């Protein structure tokens, strides 16, 4: 029997969402990069610093997001570090956009919009990816089913099943 979770409609939805996120990322990257560049230059940094700093902020966001996604797909709790880096990077990007905006509230909202749109759209895509991993695990057996049960426990707040680390299972592998 075919897996109802991998229908062409689901693939089309994820493809359209991915295209939307890529488009928003391109728009936000251009606008946000320019804002961060201007802010860094305005505060006396060199042009090289102004060129590289926005990339470090966006890179940190991307790496933290992928770390969270990998942990979710493996059914692990992510811990404080990736969440902290994601929040700090997102806040830095948003703050830089707002800092270079025109003083009226409308100017600041306009400047903040690309970052907010990208953050929201990216999270929606990550939810779809996590959901597809969960659906794949539901239709699988063995390790996939175990990862699914652990993932479900992580996302519902239930306790994670206890596992003995590999080095404690076998006498030769003990540290």
Automatic annotation (TrEMBL):
<keyword id="KW-0812">Transmembrane</keyword>
<feature type="transmembrane region" description="Helical">
    <location>
        <begin position="12"/>
        <end position="36"/>
    </location>
</feature>
<feature type="region of interest" description="Disordered">
    <location>
        <begin position="140"/>
        <end position="175"/>
    </location>
</feature>
<feature type="transmembrane region" description="Helical">
    <location>
        <begin position="106"/>
        <end position="125"/>
    </location>
</feature>
<dbReference type="Pfam" id="PF10935">
    <property type="entry name" value="DUF2637"/>
</dbReference>
<feature type="compositionally biased region" description="Basic residues">
    <location>
        <begin position="163"/>
        <end position="175"/>
    </location>
</feature>
<keyword id="KW-0472">Membrane</keyword>
<dbReference type="InterPro" id="IPR021235">
    <property type="entry name" value="DUF2637"/>
</dbReference>
<feature type="compositionally biased region" description="Low complexity">
    <location>
        <begin position="140"/>
        <end position="151"/>
    </location>
</feature>
<feature type="transmembrane region" description="Helical">
    <location>
        <begin position="48"/>
        <end position="68"/>
    </location>
</feature>
<keyword id="KW-1133">Transmembrane helix</keyword>
<feature type="transmembrane region" description="Helical">
    <location>
        <begin position="80"/>
        <end position="100"/>
    </location>
</feature>
<protein>
    <submittedName>
        <fullName>DUF2637 domain-containing protein</fullName>
    </submittedName>
</protein>
């Amino acid at each position: 029997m075919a897996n109802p979770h991998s229908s062409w409609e689901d693939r089309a939805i994820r493809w359209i969402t991915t295209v939307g996120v890529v488009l928003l990322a391109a728009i936000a990257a251009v606008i946000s990069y320019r804002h961060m560049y201007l802010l860094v230059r305005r505060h006396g940094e060199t042009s090289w610093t102004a060129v590289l700093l926005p990339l470090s902020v966006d890179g940190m966001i991307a790496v933290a997001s992928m770390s969270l996604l990998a942990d979710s797909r493996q059914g692990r709790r992510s811990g404080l570090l990736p969440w902290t880096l994601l929040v700090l990077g997102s806040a830095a990007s948003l703050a830089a956009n707002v800092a270079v905006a025109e003083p009226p509230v409308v100017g600041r909202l306009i400047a903040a919009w690309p970052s907010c749109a990208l953050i929201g759209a990216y999270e929606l895509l990550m939810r779809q990816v996590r959901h597809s991993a969960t659906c794949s695990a539901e239709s699988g057996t063995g390790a996939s089913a175990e990862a699914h049960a652990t993932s479900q426990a992580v996302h519902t707040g239930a306790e994670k099943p206890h596992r003995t680390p590999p080095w404690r299972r076998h006498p030769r592998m003990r540290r």
